[in-house]
Description:
Blueprint: H1 2-18, E1 26-38, E2 46-52, E3 57-58, E4 61-62, E5 67-72, E6 77-89, E7 93-108, E8 111-125, E9 131-148, E10 154-164, E11 173-185, E12 204-216, E13 221-227, E14 246-251, E15 256-269, E16 276-292, E17 295-308, E18 311-328, E19 334-344, E20 355-367
Antiparallel strand pairs: 1-2, 1-5, 1-11, 2-15, 3-4, 5-6, 6-7, 6-13, 7-8, 8-9, 9-10, 10-11, 12-13, 12-14, 12-20, 14-15, 15-16, 16-17, 17-18, 18-19, 19-20
Amino acid sequence: xxxxxxxxxxxxxxxxxxxxxxxxxxxxxxxxxxxxxxxxxxxxxxxxxxxxxxxxxxxxxxxxxxxxxxxxxxxxxxxxxxxxxxxxxxxxxxxxxxxxxxxxxxxxxxxxxxxxxxxxxxxxxxxxxxxxxxxxxxxxxxxxxxxxxxxxxxxxxxxxxxxxxxxxxxxxxxxxxxxxxxxxxxxxxxxxxxxxxxxxxxxxxxxxxxxxxxxxxxxxxxxxxxxxxxxxxxxxxxxxxxxxxxxxxxxxxxxxxxxxxxxxxxxxxxxxxxxxxxxxxxxxxxxxxxxxxxxxxxxxxxxxxxxxxxxxxxxxxxxxxxxxxxxxxxxxxxxxxxxxxxxxxxxxxxxxxxxxxxxxxxxxxxxx
Length: 368
């Protein structure tokens, strides 16, 4: 497996050197369907994921990345690096880092194919004095179709296969995914001068990352630091929610705007620990008030929903407040820094006390 990954990465570099006439770098977000299958390990079974946006990890196992970047290196070739990070501390800290590089070759008429390599680093603290560290190598294959969605956005449909080698603690496995992605150019390309430039109060869709502390009153607390945010995707919703990774910002007037964060995840399997279907997600609509320039403050309701084979659909309501600052990253892309606090009511049927969550996040926005 090591030889295959090194050979694949060397081939990518050779193709990139041979290419000419770079296009425009794009950044995007994706979600969709994925099937995780442990190769030759029937006892581990198969898991199906339906995610908006995508999930970066299932426990310690990496799935496809939520965030993607395409960097053109020629008229027909682009490189797609991948970075994902997740660290959470319950009783002891657990850390996962994923790195990847894929070369996409245009086949004409929006169709492309790609191949690359992946590496996943895992550190599990078993106690205050002992831990386990693993490195897992993999190969990525993909084929897809790109298309325009107006002056500012592009879309893509992609099928991809990820194959990972076994480690001492994780069996070998493969991920088969079908995803839909949205992307926007980092800068206004000459051929797309009609693309809408960054506006501090313009309509955008964005993805965010950062730190959060979620506390179940009378129970336990969990600290998360992740790129991007995991939202409610942590292990089929067994964990406490973090800020929604995906958000939409729509201005209603020169001083008011709707800011809605959301994510939804369904995991289905007939194998432990899932044994059925687990649905989890959140919708947090908020009314933002423009204070001055890019500064804003907002408040609104929060809804966290869960369903599993043992409980019917439950909606846990709450409220959220936030304040932040929006700023330009490039001519078309925006950024935001935000601090927020969310409070959920207790839900005794699911065994949750009142949940409070404090978060500091950084987001990237694509114009709508």
